[in-house]
Automatic annotation (TrEMBL):
This is DYW domain-containing protein. Transmembrane segments: none annotated. Keywords: Repeat. It holds the Pfam family PPR.
Length: 605
DNA sequence: TTAGGGTTAG
């Protein structure tokens, strides 16, 4: 009855302005009214009133109106999935649109498993999925992550012949990427006939999330070669992340330039990524300038800045920024405190570190995690307080992990405390450490103590576990390209000229009073062999390459995977004065800025 | 008839 009256009303409305309409078009006007009612809603109260009105007008029986009702309730920011479900359950006609809507609602609500259940119900009811079904469903699989379900879904897509839909393909790339299946992820991308920027974005983000940084940069090049280059902040953030990890400052700078030219008003994520890139690529000054100019800083921006200062050895400055953060009313979290403790650690601020550690719990209610204990062990260990570090480990409310023992082992090595080193190593081996470096450090400590039998025993132990030493490498950026050198490298195309340069460097170093610190070569070989091995360390090769291929006076930046040895440290200090170059070296934990014969770490690292 | 993919940082 109600529906008839509505039909009548709309018919009258139309017939005033237009020639008589067919009953079908008049019915559409009922739908239009429904849509306009729903569009006006901005909260659940208003929505409920519109819902009542729609029921009263008899529009709920119309599939289009009911569907829009569900969609509005399920997908609006102010909506409610419970309410949407109750409407959904009352509907007579359930097709793919209705199911797709419910799935989207569940995914939006982070209720991903419910989205998969909805898909299952869809199949059970014999409703055929369409091309709109899969992007949502794959997003759910990606988020869980549920690669097996994702692959089943992929099979359904092939069965239904939807594999050429670009939206479906992009979702597949993203799903496989997030599930760590980079091979299939690339295969889907390769098979695409037509790609969009989102396809590249999904692919680059997938590589970035798996730490495949070099591939990220290669793909960015491929993307621009295929003419897909446009200002896409999200892609550039992934690329900046790659630059950060690889230490590719020049490329990072060009991304910055591109952003300045093409994007007006950088958002806080892009700005923070830029700051992190500058800080971790060695350009502390530039990172600091950008940070100071930021209009709005959040907790993450402060966190990045504090950790950056820590890496550069500016502990006190890091603590100052931390105070500023608190003054701004920003509440620190556990990760900010990791940065703060690291800042203390790298600058040898033992008392300050202890104060912060206590303050974290007392003032901010943050229970120390194993990571914080790790920072404290590192702080004490670096400062030579090995016994205190060991005491702290024993007093922890949780079981110490390999990271902690490794930190103690490393400190024992630096401070020549073989007894503590043996304790740490024993615990590491008990935890079934699969890191060859743990065996190598202990073996090196025995070597330093001339205990060659123990050296042999440790090495045999290591080999019997099938472990081999990860080679140390140094990366150096020349003309926006990263060049990689390993120790005693002979594989670089310009190896010959590098060794020639090395010879010249050593000749000049002799005049500065340099003599190779052969105690750093921990093998039972003769002095000449030791000298030979020292001179071929990857950092020296990288510096030689940079001296040949960069203009006089320009800075040299190196990224290494391991801590540098004392000899490389002394050597680099002298090179900085002889060749008048600023040399920045980033290892796994921190930066060393070599200038005029001195290092920013003041030999504390 | 309705709608969908890539949202990035410590």
């Amino acid at each position: 009855m109600i529906r008839t009256s509505v039909l009548h009303q709309t018919h009258v409305l139309v017939s005033r302005e237009d020639p008589p309409q067919s009953p079908e078009l008049s019915f559409k006007l009922g739908e239009k009214e429904c849509v306009s009612l729903l569009k006006k809603c901005s909260n659940m109260e208003e929505f409920k009133q519109s819902h009542a009105r729609i029921l009263k007008l008899g529009l709920f029986g119309d599939s289009f109106c009911a569907s829009n009702l569900v969609a509005t309730c399920a997908l609006s920011d102010w909506g409610s999935m419970d309410y949407a479900c109750s409407i959904f359950r009352q509907m007579d006609e359930l097709g793919s649109f209705q199911f797709n809507t419910m799935m989207r609602g569940h995914v939006k609500d982070m209720n991903t498993e419910e989205a998969l259940i909805t898909y299952k119900e869809m199949a059970e009811r014999g409703v055929k999925p369409d091309n709109f079904t899969y992007p949502t469903l794959l997003k759910a699989c990606a988020r869980l992550p549920a690669v097996e379900e994702g692959m089943q879904v992929h099979a359904h897509i092939l069965k239904l012949g939807l594999e050429n839909d670009v939206f479906v393909q992009n979702s597949l790339i993203s799903m496989y990427g997030k599930c760590g299946e980079i091979g299939v992820c690339c295969a889907v991308f390769e098979q695409m006939n037509e790609r969009s920027v989102a396809s590249w974005s999904a692919l680059i983000t997938a590589h970035a999330s798996l730490g495949m940084w070099s591939d990220c940069l290669r793909l960015l090049g491929d993307m621009s070669n295929e003419g897909y280059w446009r200002a896409e902040e999200s892609i550039l953030v992934s690329v900046l992340s790659a630059c950060t990890h690889l230490g590719a400052l020049d490329l990072g700078r060009s991304v910055h330039g591109f952003l300045l030219r093409n994007v007006s008003g950088l958002n806080v994520i892009v700005e923070t990524s830029l700051i992190e890139m500058y800080l971790k690529c060695g350009s502390l000054y530039k990172g600091m300038c950008l940070f100071q100019k930021m209009a709005k800083k959040n907790k993450l921006s402060y966190s990045v800045m504090i950790s950056g200062l820590a890496m550069h050895g500016y502990g006190r400055e890091g603590l100052r920024i931390f105070t500023e953060m608190l003054e701004q009313g920003l509440e620190p979290d556990d990760i900010v405190y990791v940065g703060v403790l690291n800042a203390c650690s790298h600058a040898g601020l033992v008392q300050e570190g202890l104060q912060c550690f206590n303050r974290m719990k007392l003032e901010h209610g943050i229970e120390p995690t194993i990571q914080h204990y790790g920072c404290m062990v590192d702080l004490m260990g670096r400062a030579g307080k090995i016994d205190e570090a060991l005491e702290l480990i024993k007093s922890m409310p949780m079981e110490p992990n390999d990271v902690l023992w490794r930190s103690l082992l490393s400190a024992s090595k630096v401070h020549n405390n073989l007894q503590a080193g043996e304790i740490a190593a024993k615990q590491l081996f008990k935890l079934d450490s699969q890191k060859a470096s743990d065996y190598v450090v202990l073996s090196n400590m025995y070597a330093q103590a001339q205990r060659w039998e123990d050296v042999a025993k440790t090495r045999t132990n290591m080999f019997s576990k099938g472990l081999s030493q990860r080679p140390g490498f140094s990366l150096v950026e020349v003309k926006r390209k990263m060049h990689r050198f390993v120790s005693q490298d002979a594989g670089h195309p310009q190896s010959e000229s590098v060794y020639e340069m090395l010879y010249q460097m050593e000749w000049q170093l002799k005049f500065e009073g340099y003599s190779p610190d052969t105690t750093q070569v921990l093998c039972d070989v003769d002095e000449e062999e030791k000298k030979q091995r020292l001179s071929g360390h990857s950092q020296k090769l990288a510096i030689a390459y940079a001296l040949i291929h960069t203009s006089q006076g320009s800075p040299i930046r190196i990224v290494r995977n391991l801590r540098m040895c004392n000899d490389c440290h002394t050597y680099t200090k002298l090179i900085s004065i002889i060749f008048d170059r600023e040399i920045t070296v980033r290892d796994r934990h921190r930066f060393h800025h070599f200038k005029d014969g001195a290092c920013s770490c003041r030999d504390y690292w």
